[in-house]
Amino acid sequence: xxxxxxxxxxxxxxxxxxxxxxxxxxxxxxxxxxxxxxxxxxxxxxxxxxxxxxxxxxxxxxxxxxxxxxxxxxxxxxxxxxxxxxxxxxxxxxxxxxxxxxxxxxxxxxxxxxxxxxxxxxxxxxxxxxxxxxxxxxxxxxxxxxxxxxxxxxxxxxxxxxxxxxxxxxxxxxxxxxxxxxxxxxxxxxxxxxxxxxxxxxxxxxxxxxxxxxxxxxxxxxxxxxxxxxxxxxxxxxxxxxxxxxxxxxxxxxxxxxxxxxxxxxxxxxxxxxxxxxxxxxxxxxxxxxxxxxxxxxxxxxxxxxxxxxxxxxxxxxxxxxxxxxxxxxxxxxxxxxxxxxxxxxxxxxxxxxxxxxxxxxxxxxxxxxxxxxxxxxxxxxxxxxxxxxxxxxxxxxxxxxxxxxxxxxxxxxxxxxxxxxxxxxxxxxxxxxxxxxxxxxxxxxxxxxxxxxxxxxxxxxxxxxxxxxxxxxxxxxxxxxxxxxxxxxxxxxxxxxxxxxxxxxxxxxxxxxxxxxxxxxxxxxxxxxxxxxxxxxxxxxxxxxxxxxxxxxxxxxxxxxxxxxxxxxxxxxxxxxxxxxxxxxxxxxxxxxxxxxxxxxxxxxxxxxxxxxxxxxxxxxxxxxxxxxxxxxxxxxxxxxxxxxxx
Length: 648
What we know:
By secondary structure, the protein is α+β, with helices and mostly antiparallel strands. It has 15 helices and 42 strands. The strands form eleven sheets. Strands 13-12-9-10-11-17-24-22 form an eight-stranded antiparallel β-sheet, sandwiched between helices. Strands 26, 27, 30, 31, 32, 33 and 34 form a seven-stranded antiparallel β-sheet that branches. The longest helix has 19 residues, at 156-174. The radius of gyration is 26 Å and the shape is globular.
């Protein structure tokens, strides 16, 4: 298959833009990146052959103009943004440019959940029943995906508010507030089938993925093949996906999603994603084709299909080799209700032995202007357990200083008995709670990193406190610690250090020091043997605090010699911004009386809405912001004073 395009403009950013640019380069295709002001100098702009500034990744005219300016033969939309907008596909076609994806007509039919549902029914594919009166129901956006615009409604009292919130979120994310209401399956597994179709009538499936480990309909861990599906159910969804693609005349890469009801064993069609999926790497890791056993590259195949080439294999040529799992790294705090995080990344370190589709670099600013996904870690093993243990090891090595991420949560989840035994269904994370990782080992690393000379008597953590907590925490260091040798590039290692910790000899040997281009220390990767167990962590020390990333979890400790009084705690009636974002809605003004749990306002960040509620009944004394205001984490938004209770 030699047919290729001469050039491709990538209408996206971040890791998916890099993924497409690198696939294009492997085929000898010239790549053009686009970028907005926050992404000036971002990795995808540096790696492309050409980069053009645009006003917004959602500005269709700007992207078409950029393609014309660069004389681009094709446009790859990636995922998110305009990737499933039929309006965009039509504009690309009208400009005489090849869209790396299905036609606008097909996208319009299958890109909408309501229209796709009707086509599936016509093709004989089972769909989820709809009845808005039979609770619980799932309210979801008819356009788009990714869990945006979805709400579970369990009673009639919740229905109107849920529909209104889903409409707002859908309009913001997809420019369309149409809502679909379906039966909510309490315990189900999310199974999806990757399909490929060329312009010569060949349609194949690339087997299935399981994306059941999700929270509020947002995927967290994805794997291939599905670990619990029966052979009968597997063949049923594989056949249905191919038949549906044929029925609609689909071309290029797409994904047909199903919900497997554990109670009934039925598999229901959910939707078809008319684009590349975030989780496509797990399919690439396991699907091979004869005669060489070479693994498939979905993006290369997308580009070649768009150029008119025929698929180089038939269904019988494809087979599954081993097992793969992907973890999505997000800028969010899972142990604070998954609130979005923002800030400047300090040291960023990714494991070398795993596939890491990432675009986050040391020193990069992470804002709330875009989706919070920072990257993906993908591992492959001979079987599922080998892949799972490899994922745990890989997440142990992910280090992101400067802001909180969900890496520690992912590590704990991948190491859990429930994930090991594949008992997690689509709502498991909504029903269950994972405890935050123990910080005891992180404190030992903090003490080791911050002490200028370990050998000057016993080292204790008296007076140290977690920088995120108001109360002092006193921890005595009473564990045996020895530093193990850690191979590293000697040009980057710091001097050795020896001494004692509570009388135990400690010798530091070759901790890896990471520096920026100016030679400034960004962080140090150290291996300590604690109680005979090797632990690796990344640390960064400044005059005020010590950051430690251990097992993916970021801990911040305030240094006792500079820690002063924080002042009085905020009153119980003070409502602060729980995340950096934008005021989306205001329900009250100064002087209004409210009841406990009344919604005061709504904050939005990274396409996520959070309602702020009154802590108790009283009178609003502060409501000093307006809709559209940008707020920082911790900004005071409302104050409520309890009404005085009369003695009469």
